[in-house]
Amino acid sequence: MLGKKLVTAQKRGETRALCLGLGMVACSMMMYFFIGITIVPFYTKSVWTTETMCKVLKANIKDKVFCPNSEGSEDEEIFPYPCLQVWVNLTASGQEVMLYQTEDTLERNPKCSYVPDKLENPKEVKALIETIASNFKKYQTFPCYYDPGGTQTNVILSRLYPSKGLLFAFLWPTLMFTGGCLIIVLVKISQYVSVLSAWQ
């Protein structure tokens, strides 16, 4: 009687472990799919792939402009903000080009180097942009990214999805997939050993 209870408990444990392993594998595959349709296209679409050094030539704050909505979106209100324009000297080619914060900044407003997130207090927005302008004037030389193919003559300060960020995004589903497969293999080995012992 005790032997049957132990066998039943062992089978239940194996079933739960097998379900856990299969669940981990399924979750990791869904994470791979989500990363593949969200992050990877933005990474491959970006042409600013080569890092170089940029030197600030001028950083001016012009009159207020209106933050344009994304095409087809109506949930974001248009709000005015000071337009910061930063021009840099590109070390790789020696050209005078305009600097943008990220790829998204160029798409949202190509006239300004920085597009703030919507803030309720206009004074906070103004103070933030003035601080960014003073930092550019203070730290005049810094790394930036440019397009080696020449399709984009401007540069960006940082990429939305750099190579390290993409690898880090794939790290967790890979660990989960590996752990799930390991659990499944161990359960199968345990079942094989149990059958082999019973047969002997």
Q: What strand order characterises the main sheet?
A: 1-2-3-5-4
- Main sheet characteristics: 5 strands, mixed, barrel
Mean pLDDT: 81
Number of strands: 5
- Structural class of the helices, strands and pairings? alpha+beta
Helix content: 40-55%
- What count of helical segments does DSSP give? 4
Strand content bin: 15-25%
Shape: elongated
The total domain count is 2
Uncertain residue segments: 69-76
Using only C-alpha atoms, the radius of gyration works out to 27 Å
SSE string, helices as H and strands as E: HEEEHHEEH
Ends apart, CA distance between termini = 21 Å
Protein name: KCMB2 protein
Organism: Struthidea cinerea
Keywords: Glycoprotein, Ion channel, Ion transport, Membrane, Transmembrane, Transmembrane helix, Transport
Main location: membrane
Walk me through this protein's architecture.
The chain is α+β, with helices and mostly antiparallel strands. It has two domains: 50-161, no CATH class; 163-199. The chain has helices at residues 2-45, 103-108, 122-138, 163-199, and strands at residues 50-66, 80-90, 96-100, 141-146, 155-156. The protein has a five-stranded mixed β-barrel. Strand 4 and strand 5 (155-156) form a beta hairpin. Helix 1 (2-45) runs antiparallel to helix 4 (163-199). The longest helix is centred in the N-terminal third of the chain and has 44 residues, at 2-45. It is elongated, with a radius of gyration of 27 Å. 15% of the residues are buried. This is KCMB2 protein. GO terms for molecular function: calcium-activated potassium channel activity; potassium channel regulator activity. The chain crosses the membrane at residues 20-43, 166-187. InterPro entries: K_chnl_Ca-activ_BK_bsu. One of its GO terms (cellular component) is voltage-gated potassium channel complex.
